[in-house]
Amino acid sequence: MYKSFLYFLVLILFGCSQKQEATIDSPKKQVNPFYEKAFVFIDNDQDSAFYYLNKGKDVFIERKDSFGAGKCYVNMAIIQENTGDNFGSIETSLTALNFLNEKDFSHYYSLYCNYNNLGVASTNLKNYDDARRFYDKAYLFTKDPIDKLMLANNIGIVYHDEKNYGKAITIYKKLLDSIGSKS
């Protein structure tokens, strides 16, 4: 229960869907009313948010806007993970990778969120090697120090769940030291 609370707290504090909306715009800058409407529901009605993201994804695909479609898939995958559909979340996140470009800097935040989500869902399924691999991949797509702290924390959780307490404690101590040195 405590671990679930920590996951939830981290997702709320550093939720990709909220930051993504504020910082990433589709290169084509065309309004997609379904995509916009999804964020009205994202915090309180995830079924409706998922519905509108799915409709928005179809509009982006019709417009040949792969970045917009990729962002929809990433947010849909995060919703699936939040509601306990870890297998579906992984499948949706893997689909998102077909729409995101690892060589395009404007896609980096979505890629970071997507790989982090793959790590979280893999951790939930006890696929710890995959989780670490996805978290390591997420590191490649962020320069944000808070994002990096969150990824380190997530890797610490993986080691904790594997009962590799020594590695988990080492990571947690480094996190505490880095936070303490900044205050």
TrEMBL record:
InterPro entries: TPR-like_helical_dom_sf (IPR011990), TPR_rpt (IPR019734)
Protein name: Uncharacterized protein
UniProt organism field: Epilithonimonas hispanica
